[in-house]
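Page 37, continued from 36.
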C-alpha cells in the first residue's frame, strides 16, 4: 500500500514504462493485471515489448536490433530473460538485461531488471541485500553474472521471490502432480512470495520513487508455507522426505522495499488468489 508519507515522495514521471519481455510468463501475468490503481500515483499505460510484436506489442528483437523509435518513456522494466536451458542459453540473461540498461542510460531514465532470490542460494536465515551470494543453480549463477554486468547508478536489480502463478509450484499445479518435501518438524517448505498484482504495484512505485537502491529484495514480508498455498487453491498434494540439501525456509529481508512501498504480510490465501489469475 502507499501511505500518505509515501504518496508525497512518489512523483509520476512523464511517459510510459517500457516493459521488455511481455511474452514471457511473468510478462503475461503482469499484462493481465495492468493497469494498476494506486493512490498517489497514476502511471501511463506501459509499452510492452516482444520479439514479433504480437498482440499490438512493440516489435523489437533485443539481441539483434537497435531499439526502434519510441514515444516518451519514463523508465524501463526488464523482464526478458532465460530461466532454463544450457549454459549458453542462460548466459543470454546478461545481454538481454544490458540492452535495457544501455537504453535507459541513453534515455536518461531508471531501469529495473528482474533478478531472482536464487542468487543467494539455499542459505538459511533472513537474507538482506548485502548478504553473501552463493547460488547453487546455473540459473542463479547466470543472474548473479547479469547483476554484476549491468551495475550502474540508474539500474536496480530486483531479487524477486516466488511469484504466485509463475513459479515452480504453479508448474507442478498445472501438471496436476504436486509433491512437497517434509522436514523433520513435520512441516513443508516455506518461501518468500509475491503476487502479480503486488509486483505491478511495486514496479510503478519504484519508477515513481525519487531514488532506488542498486539491488532490492522484492516479496511480501515473511514467508508462505507451500502447503498452505495448495490448500487455499484446493489442490491435492503428496509428501516426500526432504533430502539433505533441501531448504525449509527462504525469507527475504524487505525492509528497503517497505520504505518505498508497503506490501501486506505473506498470506497463502492471497497468493493462491493472485496465482489463479496469473
Amino acid at each position: 500500500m502507499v501511505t500518505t508519507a509515501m504518496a508525497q515522495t512518489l512523483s509520476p514521471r512523464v511517459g510510459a514504462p517500457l516493459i521488455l519481455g511481455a511474452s514471457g510468463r511473468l510478462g503475461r501475468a503482469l499484462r493481465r493485471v495492468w493497469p494498476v490503481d494506486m493512490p498517489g500515483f497514476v502511471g501511463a499505460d506501459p509499452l510492452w515489448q516482444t520479439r514479433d510484436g504480437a498482440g499490438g506489442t512493440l516489435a523489437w528483437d533485443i539481441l539483434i536490433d537497435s531499439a526502434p523509435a519510441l514515444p516518451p518513456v519514463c523508465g524501463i522494466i526488464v523482464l526478458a530473460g532465460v530461466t532454463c536451458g544450457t549454459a549458453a542459453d542462460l548466459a543470454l540473461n546478461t545481454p538481454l538485461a544490458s540492452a535495457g540498461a544501455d537504453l535507459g542510460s541513453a534515455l536518461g531514465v531508471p531501469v529495473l531488471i528482474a533478478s531472482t532470490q536464487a542468487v543467494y542460494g539455499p542459505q538459511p536465515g533472513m537474507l538482506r541485500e548485502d548478504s553473501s551470494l552463493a547460488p547453487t543453480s546455473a540459473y542463479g549463477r547466470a543472474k548473479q553474472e547479469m547483476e554484476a554486468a549491468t551495475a550502474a547508478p540508474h539500474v536496480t536489480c530486483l531479487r524477486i521471490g516466488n511469484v504466485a502463478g509463475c513459479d515452480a509450484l504453479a508448474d507442478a499445479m498445472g501438471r496436476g502432480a504436486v509433491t512437497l518435501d517434509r522436514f523433520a518438524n513435520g512441516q513443508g517448505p516455506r518461501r518468500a512470495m509475491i503476487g502479480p498484482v503486488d509486483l505491478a504495484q511495486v514496479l510503478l512505485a519504484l519508477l515513481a520513487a525519487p531514488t532506488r537502491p542498486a539491488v532490492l529484495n522484492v516479496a511480501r514480508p515473511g514467508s508462505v508455507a507451500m502447503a498452505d498455498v495448495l490448500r487455499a487453491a484446493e489442490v491435492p498434494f503428496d509428501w516426500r522426505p526432504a533430502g539433505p540439501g533441501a531448504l525449509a525456509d527462504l525469507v527475504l529481508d524487505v525492509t528497503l522495499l517497505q520504505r518505498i512501498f508497503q506490501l501486506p504480510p505473506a498470506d497463502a490465501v492471497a497468493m493462491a488468489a493472485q496465482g489463479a489469475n496469473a
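The chain has one domain: 4-163+194-220+252-263. Flag for discussion at group meeting. Residues 2-8 have pLDDT under 50 and may be disordered.
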